[in-house]
C-alpha cells in the first residue's frame, strides 16, 4: 500500500478518536522538522517540537497537533484524544500540489 494511502487512513482513524477539549481550553502544538514554526506559519521562527511523539506526550486531550511539511521517521504512538493535522489537511487530494507531511516507520 502506498505511503499516502496509509497516511490518509491513519489521519481518518485519528480524526475518529477526537473528543471534546479539556476545561483548560485546547492548545495548538506545532511539529516542524527544523524545530521552528507556529500554528499559523510553519516558516515562523518560533521554537516547535521536532517529533510527533514529543508533541503527543506534551499534549492534553483535546489539543491540536499541527505537523508541518516534512518527513518524520518515527513510530507514532497515539495514546490520547488529540487532533493530528498534517500540512495538507482539509485540501482535496484531487490535483493538489504542495509540501506534504510524511511519516515513515522507524526501523
Detailed description of the structure:
α2 links the parallel β1 and β2 (64-67). The strands form two sheets. The chain has a three-stranded parallel β-sheet. The protein contains two helices and five strands. It is α/β, with parallel strands linked by helices and 107 residues long.
Architecture blueprint of SSEs:
Blueprint: H1 3-16, E1 28-31, H2 52-58, E2 64-67, E3 70-73, E4 83-85, E5 101-104
Parallel strand pairs: 1-2, 2-4, 3-5
Portion in helices: 10-25%
Largest sheet: 3 strands, parallel
Got a strand count? Answer: 5
Radius of gyration, Cα only, in angstroms?
Answer: 13 Å
Outline type: globular
Structural class: alpha/beta
What is the number of helical segments per DSSP (H or I, 4+ residues)? 2
Strand content: 15-25%
Major sheet strand order: 1-2-4
Look at the structure and give the mean pLDDT: 82
Helix-strand pattern: HEHEEEE
Low confidence ranges: 1-22
Between the first and last Cα atoms, what is the distance in angstroms? 18 Å
Key attributes of the depicted protein:
5 strands, 107 residues, two-stranded parallel ribbon, alpha/beta, 2 helices, disordered N terminus
What is the compact description of this entry?
By secondary structure, the chain is α/β, with parallel strands linked by helices. The protein has helices at residues 3-16, 52-58; strands at 28-31, 64-67, 70-73, 83-85, 101-104.
Amino acid at each position: 500500500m502506498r505511503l499516502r494511502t496509509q497516511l490518509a487512513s491513519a489521519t481518518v482513524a485519528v480524526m475518529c478518536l477526537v473528543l471534546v477539549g479539556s476545561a483548560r481550553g485546547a492548545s495548538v502544538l506545532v511539529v516542524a522538522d527544523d524545530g521552528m514554526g507556529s500554528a499559523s506559519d510553519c516558516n515562523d521562527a518560533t521554537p516547535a517540537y521536532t517529533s510527533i511523539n514529543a508533541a503527543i506526550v506534551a499534549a492534553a486531550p483535546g489539543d491540536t497537533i499541527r505537523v508541518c511539511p516534512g518527513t518524520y521517521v518515527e513510530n507514532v504512538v497515539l495514546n490520547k484524544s488529540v487532533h493530528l493535522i498534517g500540512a495538507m489537511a482539509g485540501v482535496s487530494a484531487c490535483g493538489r500540489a504542495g509540501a506534504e507531511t510524511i511519516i515513515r516507520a522507524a526501523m
